[in-house]
Amino acid sequence: MSGVNLSRRKFLTTTGLAGGGLVVGVSLAGCGASRPPVTPEAGSFVPNAFLEVTPDNVVRFFCPRDEMGQGVTTGLATIIGEELDVAPWNMDIVFAGPHEEYANPIFGVQITGGSTSVRGHYLPLRELGAQCRDLLLQAASRELGLPVGALATDDGHVVADGIRRPYGDFATAAAALEIPEAAPPLKPASAFKYIGKDFPRVDGMAKATGTATYGIDIDIPDMHHAVVKRCPVVGGTLRDLDKAAALSAPGVTDVVEIASGVAVVAKEFWQARKAADALEVDWDLPELGGLSTADIKADYRAAMENEEGLVAEEAEDIEAAMADAETVVEGQYWAPYLAHAPMEPMNAVVRIEGDEADVWSGTQGIGAAQGLVARYANLDKDKVRAHNTWLGGAFGRRGTLTHVVEATQVAAATGKPIHLLWTREDDIRHGLFRPASLMRIKAGLDGEGNMLTWQAKRVGGNITPDTIANAMPGLLPTAIGDSVIGLAVGLADHAFGGWVVDGSSVEGLFEDYEARHVDVRHVTRDHGLPLTFWRSVGHSYTAFAKESMIDELAAKSGQDPVAFRLRHTQNNPRLNRVIRVAGERMAAMHPAPGRHLGFAAHHSFSTDVAEVAEVSVEGNEIRVHRVLCVLDCGIAINPDIVKAQMEGSVMYGLTAALHGNLELVDGAIRESNFHDYPILRMDEAPSVEVVLIDSDGEPTGVGEPGLPPIAPAVANAVFAATGRRLRSLPLRLS
Amino acid sequence: MIEFTLNGERVRTDAAPDTPLLWVVRDSFKLKGSKYGCGMGQCGACTMHVDGEAVRSCITPLAAVQGESVTTIEGLGTPASPHPLQTAWHEQSVLQCGYCQPGQIMSAAALLAHNPNPSEEEVEQGMAGNICRCGCYPRIKKAILAVASDAAGSELAEEVTT
Questions:
Q1: Residue A25's pLDDT is what?
Q2: ipTM greater than 0.85
Q3: What is the pTM of this model?
Q4: B20/A648 touch (CB, cutoff 8 Å), yes or no
């Protein structure tokens, strides 16, 4: 609901990686201008922290972002390879170690998330690729005695009349050249060889043959395995522990009390797991111990009724404006707590030897892993070697590295190299959660069916304080103590509780459509469950409320849902076009008898997406047969990977829409594994058709924006099928 | 001491007989391609073949494979000599994070071994025991059907030429 001058906006935009700005300001102060962690081979040409060309013609790309499945290794290799003129599949791609050179250009710290990787690196990596190629050409020109103008390049080779020589032949000579300040001119899009083209992902064969190494696969000499027994209620503390039985179990070497529980260490994982399961522990339960989901919902409802809330967007007199409306519609929407449940549970391997350490873990921020080991093992950061691996899924979960803290504490206490693995039960019950949300939207139309008012309020927890609490210990210099961090977290809690709205709590609730009076409030209610970003963050729940309400407004005023959306996005041409294209295709879908279509659109992570769900309802069972997804993400680096991200976002969003629910019972999460926290399976999965709007605009986010529209598209199709508005997630007809 | 065949080689281990096969293969024999996902046979990330049948190795006790022949993803194919499913997975960019894919591929290989020409619905049913959190299902299905039809095609070609 943009382009309206009657409103004032008051919130901190911390979308994606909340608190990034705050963390950046302090963390970089602690870093010197040290060398990037690249150890070049003899005679190599290393023009920058991202590239190495060896004399035997290996072109190595140090990928600064983490591969959690989104295709970033292929994407960034394509971007740098385009200007360097090396095919992405002919590069040796390695994960960059921790260093400020590898900071995410959008966040300023070495973190992967918020659908920022391609957006942030698109120009910088092209410039570095172009610069490297330019220097190789200069070196070749001298060696071959030909002017640079007579030389061209082709996939890692310098070519001229009758000459085709690999880049490696000129690596040593290029290394002796001075690196110019300014980058050479970049290619026009019309000359792209790799950008915008479909080709297989670079990691396909390694992953299909089981030879890709994930964090869980790390195996080092004398490695011991640790499993942590945790209090069923978050924040509980150890009262009493009988170690004897566990210590006498086969293979068990140590039982260690750590901050998050009791770690059982054994020679084999299975020995540790069995002994941990059998461990008898008494816990002192925190206040959360008395709470169940029904209590939290009741508290949210009361807050929704009784509290005005902080202003995120303010209309001067929304009540008076609402009184002028011809049609007023109101709805209240619920979204539950959710776990991320990536297929690879959290894990870390830590080895401490004297004043040095190594840590291996698949993370969304390897610099934080290094910082955490340094902090909790009392070591210099420079003495901690942090090794990133492939990530078995992340979805926001691998931005928080308490498992690295745990492995460090156990390694420090036992003196052994430790492989610490969370069980699936740990993952579902003891991680960080997508916050539960209660949202209310009241909207009014004038006599012509134009949106006059949009009044929205959300009640729930904020992710930023927990994000700061979890990110700062890893990112800040170790000299900054825990008490200072505690103070900062307390300040954030206080600020977002009573002073300014955490942008990630309300993002997506009101921005997309035009209304004359827009008023958005937020009430913070936090019952102590740890919260974090979950694929598409606030949009994962706000789009459900917003798009359900838009659909209801259209239906109540007898307007076509696509036409209604087009009418209210006149000042938002990119979203408008996506809606129009999806609407045209929807009109041609002709669902079979018994099947119904639902529409939704949403802007997030700078990308516009519209989705149509084809749904049938039999008894109380909702089945999604087919999904159409239309998006504009600017230029698509690898269109097939963009499509895969949309397909995956639809599936991830459908799991949440149809199944996802964590229920708190006496402070403990009831669900524990895939039997009671079901994930969408192949026999429930719809076919997905993805339509990319042809664009030569700058690339925008891809990993997350496909998710927000799917739940409301399904809910709107269920309305078309049954006449019932489902306002609670997961969608249930019973 | 329990003995079995692992990817064609006779092996023996003194691991406790109740240890799930998954952990014996990963920790004792250091074959890390089979993955832990749930530990209760719900997700299929640990899928191996025992005498040609797809089993959930996370709930298969070591004692159950005494004398049996176990095949893991490492025994199915390698980057230099991949199984047709592995080639299809690569060429069609089926996977994303890839963590569940060894299990998906082992399930798919067993499915095709039993039913070389499955219908779309048979693939859906046969693969419903394997969870993919990245949501690669449409591509997994398409790749399996393509491999099945390629194999049918090449058999047909063989018949024609002979």
A1: 26
A2: yes
A3: 0.95
A4: no
